[in-house]
Every structure is written in C-alpha cells, then in structure tokens.
Write a structure and sequence with these properties.
Layout lengths: L1 E5 L1 E2 L1 H19 L3 E5 L11 H10 L3 E3 L10 H4 L6 E2 L13 E5 L5 E8 L11 H9 L10 E7 L3 H10 L6 E5 L9 E2 L5 E3 L4 E2 L11 H9 L15 E8 L6 E9 L9
Parallel strand pairs: 1-3, 2-12, 3-4, 4-5, 7-8, 8-9, 9-11
Antiparallel strand pairs: 1-13, 6-7, 10-11, 13-14
Helix pairs in contact: 1-2
C-alpha cells in the first residue's frame, strides 16, 4: 500500500499548496491513502468545517488535528459529523470526536489512523500518551485486523517522538511526528518494520518563523514586547511530508521517502 502523510497545513498558503499540488502528487505516486494534519489550516490556529472540506476535496482521506483541535468553534460540532477527522486520543475527557478509526482504501484494505499528544514542553499536561496509544492499538493486529496503521505523534520534544517510534516499532506501519513545523532528516525503517520520521514539517511558507510572518516573532524575540498578533505567512508554500510503501500481508514498511514539493525546500522525491 502506498501511503502519504502531509505535515501541519499552515494557513492560506498551506491550503493553497494542498489544493493545487496534492491531486497531481496522488496520481504521480499512485497513492492509495493520504493523511493530512490540518490543525493549523485556518488562520494558523485550528481547522474550520469549510477548510476541512477543502482538504478532503483536494484528496485527503483523513485529516488529523492536534493541540489546536478545537480553536475553531464549529469543529466542536462538525467533528462528530465527519468520521474522516481524527483528534488526539488523549486530548481531554469528554472531547468530541475520536482519536483512532479504521478506514478502507479503494481496494477494500483496512487502514487504522490514530493521533496522540505528547507531554514534554507542551502548554498543558495530557493523559499518558504511551498508555493511551497502546490501549487503542491493542485490538488492531497489524497484518491481521488491519493492513496498515498510521500514527501521528503531535509533540514538541524530539526525544518523546523518538521514544514513541521505538515503543510502537512492529505495531504500526508508520509513526510520524507533527507540531514543530520543522522537517527533520531522520526518516528510517526501524528494526520491527515501522517507518519513522521525527517531524514531517509543515505545508506552509518556509520564508517565515514556523509559518508565521517574521516581523512579530522577531520583535518579541529581540525586544520581549508584544505589538501585534501572529499572522500566517503568505508566500508560496512547500508541501512537506512522508511517503511510505507497506506490505499488505505484514503491514510493515518496505520503503519510505521524505516529501518536498514546491515552494522553498529542496525536493526529495523524483
């Protein structure tokens, strides 16, 4: 199975990159399933119903969220109506939506998608990510009940993401980090057959400070004073993500590559 994961979609520029480039990328790579992290797609904070629909229309099979899952108020009601949306498993007790679901691709193969929030350096403490993801995946035998499992690890600390990758090695097809908006260069297949990448990066304008126009972040770093709001950068965006091909019989990864398409980053796929 050919799976593509795209990192955090950042504002208008990120949305434009997904709508303009994902359809062609899906055809070029012969993709079977696409997961997109969309938690910053609306004004850089959260995801609205209208923008979620746009990502689905562009070719996303599933859209994951993150710690900004419910920054847009309409998501509180929309997420229960749209099963293709995934919020973090350990977000909060009573949060609407679900943190893991099983889907089917165009050939009827079953793919589980789950998302978990880390705790290190995050603004608030969430429930234990390791215990929560273990319980969620326990009934989903890789290569048995499902042909592939994709886990989005939404964390600040690279060490916590790496620990999660090793924790799930052999139990997931792909473990990929999101949240920092900075792509890492450590894509690998772990000993148990799990494809791993610490951070997929963002689908956004990299002539920025993690997707935001530079002036206000620079002012705050240099002077320690706040003058205005952060606003998403609007120059041409780069699609940034992780491509993995799996073996249907085992669910394990057989090949992988980092994805850079358009914008400012150097391409890593032919």
């Amino acid at each position: 199975m050919k799976i593509l994961f795209l990192g955090d979609v950042m504002g208008r520029a990120g949305r434009a990159a997904v709508t303009e480039r994902l359809p062609a990328l899906r055809e070029k790579l012969g993709l079977d399933f696409v997961v997109v992290n969309g938690e910053n797609a609306t004004s850089g904070a959260g995801l609205s119903e209208a923008h979620a629909k746009l990502l689905f229309e562009a070719g996303a099979d599933v859209v994951t969220l993150g710690d900004h899952a419910f920054d847009q108020k309409d998501m509180m009601s929309y997420i229960d109506k749209e099963p293709r949306l995934i919020r973090p498993l350990n977000f909060a007790k009573g949060a609407p939506g679900r943190g893991v679901r099983v889907y089917e691709d165009h050939r009827g193969r079953r793919i589980a998608v789950a998302q978990i929030l880390g705790n290190v350096f995050m603004k608030r403490a969430f429930e234990d990510p390791f215990g929560n993801i273990e319980a969620a995946l326990r009934p989903l035998t890789l290569g048995g009940a499902v042909q592939a499992i994709v886990v989005d690890v939404h964390c600040e600390a690279t060490s916590e993401k790496m620990a999660m990758g090793h924790f799930l090695d052999g139990r997931a097809s792909m473990v990929v980090g999101t949240h920092t908006h900075v792509p890492t260069a450590d894509a690998m297949i772990l000993p148990g057959g799990t494809a791993y990448l610490t951070d997929a990066g963002m689908c956004g304008d990299y002539h920025s400070v993690i997707g935001m126009e530079k002036a206000e972040p620079l002012r705050r770093f240099v002077t320690g004073m706040v003058k205005g709001r952060f606003t998403p950068a609007t120059e041409p965006a780069t699609l940034s993500g992780f491509y993995v091909e799996t073996d249907d019989k085992t669910g394990r990864a057989v090949s992988m590559a980092m994805v850079r398409d358009g914008g400012r980053l150097v391409p890593t796929l032919p």
